[in-house]
Structures are given as C-alpha cells and as structure tokens.
From TrEMBL:
GO biological processes: error-free translesion synthesis
Name of this chain's protein: Co2+/Mg2+ efflux protein ApaG
A Pfam match: DUF525
ApaG domain boundaries: 3-128
SUPFAM superfamilies: ApaG-like
Source organism (scientific name): Flavobacterium faecale
Highest taxon in the source lineage: Bacteria
Length: 128
C-alpha cells in the first residue's frame, strides 16, 4: 500500500493483479486498485473530479480526466473517509499510475488538488 497526505487529506492505494484476458486478439493484464480517502483536516471537503496518468511499459502515457470517482462526488467531513475500487487493463504486465483529485474546501470555497501517490501495477510473474 502507498500513502500520501496533501492538506490533511490522506490517500492510500492498494493494488491487485486480477489476471490476463484476451481482447481483440491481444493479451491484456488486468489490475484492480482500492483507494481510501481520509479527511484529517478540520474542514469539510468534496471530491469533484480526478486526473490519472497511466504508465504502461508497452504503450504511450494515457491521461484520464473525469468527474468524481466511480460516479460519486463524495463529501468528507473531518474524520470521515471514502473508499472505492476500480481497475485498468494494461498491454504489459508492468505499469504504474499516479494523479490527483480536485477538491473543494467548504470553509473557504477554494479548490485544491490532493495528490495520489505513484503506485505500481505489476503481475507477480513479472517480478525478479
């Protein structure tokens, strides 16, 4: 698990290799990841959008931007947490992801970024 704290918002990510799949006559490597967002600040915040940079050792960098996370824009009061799961397919057994969540602080109506630490996506058989 990797963890990073930005402005009192703690992001933790746990990854898992799910297996290989054939799609359009090509092999794909499936990974899942669970993201826990914890509000350790004194203010209520809301996650409004996400930005991902997906690195695949056999492809170009992929950028993914979107509203919320898995269809939700969670509001976190001080001490609360939100956990969600998602996944991605890679063309290789090795890659990584990183990014940030755009959030709004309800006490001052200011937008800010919460950074998601780089986490590796690696099939167990690809490790030395």
């Amino acid at each position: 698990m990797v963890t990073q704290i930005t402005r009192g918002i703690k992001i933790s990510v746990l990854t898992s290799f799910e297996g290989t799949y054939f799609k359009n006559y090509k092999i794909h490597f499936a990974f899942s990841y669970e993201v826990m967002i914890e509000n350790h600040s004194k203010d209520s915040v809301q996650l409004t959008s996400r930005h991902w940079e997906i690195f695949d050792s056999l492809k170009e960098l992929e950028i993914v931007d979107g509203e919320g996370v898995v269809g939700k824009k969670p509001v976190l009061k001080p001490g609360e947490q939100h956990t969600y799961s998602s996944g991605c397919l890679l063309a290789s057994p090795y890659g990584a992801m990183k990014g940030h969540f755009n959030m709004i602080n309800f006490s001052n109506a200011k937008n800010f970024k919460v950074y998601i630490p780089t986490f590796r996506l690696c099939a167990p058989f690809a490790l030395n």
